[in-house]
Amino acid sequence: MGIRIACLSMLSVMAIQAQQPAVPRVIYFNGAVRDAAGNPRTGTVGIAFSLYENQEGGPALWSEI
């Protein structure tokens, strides 16, 4: 009886984990970098990307410069 409960518990955990979406290893981004006047930037431009849990505010979960 105890082994059956342990197996069912393990299968339940595995099913829950299988339903959670995987975090992608690569996020593709394309676009144009423009200055304040809307003109395309040229040359080397530094860009910072950050991911947040909430749509607005809060600490960054990930950041890359």
Description:
By secondary structure, this protein is α+β, with helices and mostly antiparallel strands. The chain has a domain at 23-65. The protein has one helix and two strands. Strands 1-2 form a two-stranded antiparallel sheet.
Describe this protein with a few key phrases:
65 residues, alpha+beta, two-stranded antiparallel ribbon, 1 helix, 2 strands
Class based on secondary structure composition and strand pairing = alpha+beta
Q: Average pLDDT across residues?
A: 76
Rg, rounded, reads: 22 Å
Q: What's the number of helices?
A: 1
N-end to C-end Cα span: 55 Å
The helix content is 25-40%
Question: How many E strands?
Answer: 2
Rough shape?
Answer: elongated
Largest sheet: 2 strands, antiparallel
The low-confidence parts are: none
Q: List SSEs in N-to-C order.
A: HEE
Strand line-up across the major sheet: 1-2
Strand percentage: 5-15%
How do the strands and helices of this protein lay out in sequence?
Layout: H1 2-19, E1 49-52, E2 60-64
Short description:
This protein has 65 residues and is an alpha+beta fold.
